[in-house]
Amino acid sequence: CEDCGKSLIGECKLHGPLIRAKDRVIPSRARLTLPHYLTLRVLELRAGNQQILGVFAKKVIQKRTQFGPYVGQLSTKLTRYDESRLVLQVLKDGGKYFLDTPNEDCGNWMMFVRLARNQEEQTLVAYQHCGEVYFTTVKPIEPHTELKVWYAADYAKFMEASAVFIKEESDVCPLPPVAKEPVDPWTCSTCRSTFATFALLESHQCIHKDRV
Fold this sequence. Notes:
Helices cover 11% and strands 26% of the residues. With 212 residues, it is of the alpha+beta class.
């Protein structure tokens, strides 16, 4: 204790315990690689407080946007299996290897993307190129939409999978959906017509000015 100048085992009875300062928690490698226009959300809580995460868009992502490559460890055996994620394999040096991500420090954000159960919710397609796996958007992705992936046609044959995966809903405890902020309509001060965006209102007002 620097106050009483004594070497003690445990706390100082006169001056009490030290104030402990904790180190800052560092996000995992996978979370740090998440692009700024994407975000992670907790979708489900399973036994043992296991969190099921999903990747969501924060702004509009254009069609034909490519993400990747997928970062994982090449392995002859799959050490980590999650029924909500795609199993990925690559062909390298004549051998077929799994792209394994045993923990978040061994992969990138693409490990959080969940598989699509049907064509309607599929926003990404997975394919192999030069020994790497990439995801590419197959449609424009609107804000608050989850990114979901399935195999491209040729890659599905390589993975010995069907063209589209259809899965029944599991007995899980989903969290309440994140409520979107209400959007107030823009109202014309002349005729009281309402518009979804300011640009439409501004165009409408120009018509009034022309008439005047």
